[in-house]
Amino acid sequence: MAETQVKNKNEKVGEVVSTKMAKTIVVEVTRRVPHPLYKRIVTKRSKFYAHDEQGTARLGDVVRIVESRPLSKMKRWTLGEVVRRAVDTSVAAPAQ
């Protein structure tokens, strides 16, 4: 067999909630699941630390993270791509 089998890596899509660390982003992934007893739809959130080598992700961006080998105590994900950029809401100072 000349072909090598590539294992599928786990992927998640979430919003960047922190970019304060060097080469690390914190991504919050939300999912809507039914409550096990009451069957009402509830929102569950999880935070994942992801490696961002170039620092391309910004606060509020929607990104795709890919599972990787452990990079530190809490980092087990790497930035795959930026799905959607955050809207820039900063107000520029008026020119005088």
If you had to describe this structure to a student in words, what would you say it looks like?
- The protein is mainly β and 96 residues long.
- It has a single domain, classed as OB fold (Dihydrolipoamide Acetyltransferase, E2P) (Beta Barrel), CATH 2.40.50.
- The chain contains no helices and 5 strands.
- Strands 1-2-3-5-4 form a 5-stranded mixed β-barrel.
- Strand 4 and strand 5 form a beta hairpin.
- It is extended and about 65 Å long.
- It starts with 10 loop residues before the first strand and ends in a 12-residue tail after the last strand.
Output the keywords:
96 residues; mainly beta; OB fold (Dihydrolipoamide Acetyltransferase, E2P); 5-stranded mixed barrel; 5 strands
Helix/strand layout:
Elements: E1 11-21, E2 24-34, E3 41-51, E4 62-67, E5 75-84
- Name the shape in a single word: extended
Poorly predicted runs:
none
How many separate domains?
1
CATH architecture, by name, is Beta Barrel
How large is the count of helical segments? Answer: 0
CATH topology description: OB fold (Dihydrolipoamide Acetyltransferase, E2P)
The gyration radius over C-alpha positions equals 17 Å
Sheet with the most strands?
A: 5 strands, mixed, barrel
Helical amount among residues, as a percent range?
Answer: under 10%
CATH H level, superfamily name: Nucleic acid-binding proteins
CATH class: Mainly Beta
What's the order of the H and E elements? EEEEE
Structural class: mainly beta
Q: What order do the strands of the largest sheet run in, or round the barrel if closed?
A: 1-2-3-5-4
Give the N-terminus to C-terminus distance in angstroms.
71 Å
Number of strands: 5
How large is the share of residues in beta strands?
A: over 45%
Arithmetic mean of pLDDT: 91
